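Minutes, project check-in
Item: structure for the 101-residue chain
Input as provided by the requester:
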Amino acid sequence: MAETADEEIERLEAERHSYSETFKNTSTTDTVTRAHLQAEMDRRTTRIQELQQHQPLGLLPRWGLRTASLALLWGAWGIGPWWAKLGCVLLAAFLALYSLG
């Protein structure tokens, strides 16, 4: 069974913490081991950041974007020039599409 993103992040954070503790307890004169541990911590940190970037928006941000989109559409009718209305409608469409996922 494959790990979910949250489970993988949790596992990677635990591994990173373990490497960090080992790093703290390693002698400063043992540069090879310390460099290896640092590289492993960096690799896990990079993977955690990648996973966090691909996580979908939560419920509150999605509904916030949808509300902002509707408010922008409603407010567009009060703006005078046609190009400003068009800009508001396009921005509202972008926010609505972005809120989908």
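Outcome recorded: Residues 16 and 42 are 8 Å apart (CA to CA).
No further action items on this chain.
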